[in-house]
Amino acid sequence: MTLESLKILTTGTRRGFGSYIAKKLNTSKFDRNSKLNELNKNYDVIIHCANNSSKNILSNNFYEFSYDNFFLTTELLKLNFKHFIFISSIGIYPQSHQVYNEKSRYVVKTRNFYEFFKIMNENYIHKSSKKFTILRVAGLLHQSSRENSVQKIILNKNKPISLSSNSTFNYILYEDLLNFIKIVIKNKKFGIFNVAASKNIKLIDLKNYLKSDNIRFGNYEYITPKIDNTKAKKEYDNLKLTTYQNIKKYLKIIKK
């Protein structure tokens, strides 16, 4: 059975990676304006990318925010499917210099609601289905990516950065995650995977490499732990690349 012949539903398709993969795989789409009761009840694959990244949530809007980030997952799991793919994040791991793999146990210390709900979703999916793949994904690079500290350095933006020069990050490209998902679907790979680059990068090293002289760093140190991507790398060889190498690839793309 080919990918083209599969009935696939993608959530979070208004923007970001959800929009990208829905177009690339020509899937059914579900966004904030869609209604669950209008969905088909049967799918070969559900790719759940949706999340609400709003900040400064008002108390009277917290249920809607929680629905977007958690309760929607519980509803999607009630549909009939053969494979449920959830886009999680390496951000669920604690800030430390330790190495984390998919089996690592750790004390939950989330920095924000995004990470909190990712862990909530992972736990719920794990208890509710055996037909799941959880992808703990690194930061994603694409022309449509929202502006963040790494993007500011890449573009040498004359804007303040709150993070310290020693802050560390891990990045892959949209196409890497797309290719990994294709492999997961085609080969029916279930379980949890760290879909990340083989090595992090310090912001000061990125600034020096790009000669981004407009950049001025702040004081907040954001530490991305060392991510063991051995399991995912066995499925997709491009994950052997470092964050530095991925950023070089990204620069070639945006300069075309």
Topology:
Blueprint: E1 8-11, H1 16-25, E2 28-30, E3 42-48, H2 62-76, E4 80-89, E5 99-100, H3 113-128, E6 132-137, E7 139-141, H4 149-154, E8 168-169, E9 171-173, H5 174-186, E10 191-195, E11 201-202, H6 203-210, E12 226-227, H7 230-233, H8 243-254
Parallel strand pairs: 1-2, 1-3, 3-4, 4-6, 5-12, 6-10, 7-9
Antiparallel strand pairs: 8-11
Helix pairs in contact: 2-3
Characteristic key phrases:
256 residues; alpha/beta; Rossmann fold; two-stranded parallel ribbon; 8 helices
General description of the model:
- With about 260 residues, the chain is α/β, with parallel strands linked by helices.
- The chain is globular and about 55 Å long.
- The chain has eight helices and twelve strands.
- It has helices at about 15-25, 60-75, 115-130, 150-155, 175-185, 205-210, 230-235, 245-255; strands spanning about 10, 30, 40-50, 80-90, 100, 130-135, 140, 170, 170-175, 190-195, 200, 225.
- Strands 2-1-3-4-6-10 form a six-stranded parallel β-sheet, with helices on both faces.
- The mean pLDDT is about 95.
- It starts with 7 loop residues before the first strand and ends with a helix.
- The chain has a single domain (about 5-145, about 170-195, about 225-240), classed as Rossmann fold.
- α2 packs parallel to α3.
- α1 links the parallel β1 (about 10) and β2 (about 30).
Low-pLDDT stretches are none
The major sheet is characterized as:
6 strands, parallel
Distance between the termini: 35 Å
Q: Which band does the percent of strand residues land in?
A: 15-25%
Helicity, as a percent range: 25-40%
CATH topology name, in short, is: Rossmann fold
Strand order of the largest sheet: 2-1-3-4-6-10
Count of DSSP H/I helices: 8
Total tally of structural domains: 1
Radius of gyration: 18 Å
The CATH architecture term is: 3-Layer(aba) Sandwich
Structural class: alpha/beta
Q: Give, in order, the helices and strands.
A: EHEEHEEHEEHEEHEEHEHH
CATH superfamily: NAD(P)-binding Rossmann-like Domain
